[in-house]
Amino acid sequence: MPGAGGAEPEVQSFFAGYADAKMPWIIVDRFGRRFMNEYPPYLQDTGHRGMATFDPDTQSYPRIPSWLIVDADGLARGPLGFPTYNDPSQTLGWSDDNRAEIAAGFLSQADRLEDLAQAIGAEPGVLAETVSRWNAFCAAGRDVDHGRLGATMMPIAKPPFTYGQLWPLCANTQGGPVHDEAQRVLTPYGEPIEGLYAAGELGSVFGHLYISGGNLAECFIGGKRAGEEAARKSGAA
After folding, report:
1. Predicted local distance difference test score (pLDDT) of residue 20
2. Which residues pair with 66 in a beta bridge?
3. Would you list the domain boundaries of the chain?
4. Alpha-carbon span 193 to 136, nearest angstrom
5. Which of 30, 70, 50, 31 lies closest to 146 in space, CA to CA?
6. Is the CB of residue 212 less than 8 Å from the CB of residue 44?
7. CATH 3.10.20.90 is the classification of domain 11-166
8. Quick one: which of 100, 111, 158, 184 has the most CB atoms within 10 Å?
């Protein structure tokens, strides 16, 4: 968000959630083509889905891994990663200037887009066209291909170019067995399975979308209902 006098604030992390924070990278598939809005409204359970496309001709997933690309100006804006983990014994961090990650091989650099394309196995002409098209979108302030917010866009123009692999990660699961209003798990024919109940996000009423905090409500409400039904069925209620 703009600071005093309209100046742009220093970006400490690209996960700050500001709709107008610059995100200096683009993401391309193994052929060097963009395929998604790199700054979607909510990443938790949807950001990885564009990477799951299967190509029946090559019998492969051409977007796994994908590649993040940023130029020198973008690299200077702040850390490209923000490690998260649940193990209290872990101490993994990310350097403020990304240099430690480059030295460790998590990120690589190339002075020319042609060299970058060769490193990721893409055709140089395809990657060059992708970057040129992206830079034109940045100049116009509009991403015609994937609708990314203009305020988040930065050109990929100044070498060296930094790149790294991206793999899909899901932090939350939705879906699961279908259940009825009594939390009874149903067969494919819509019949309840005797003694089998679901609660929480397993078979979420929200379908395949994660509604922030909604699964907690499902745990309390669905769990209570499932427990009541199970108790009533057993004669304990």
Report:
1. 53
2. 166
3. 11-166, 184-234
4. 57
5. 50
6. yes
7. no
8. 184
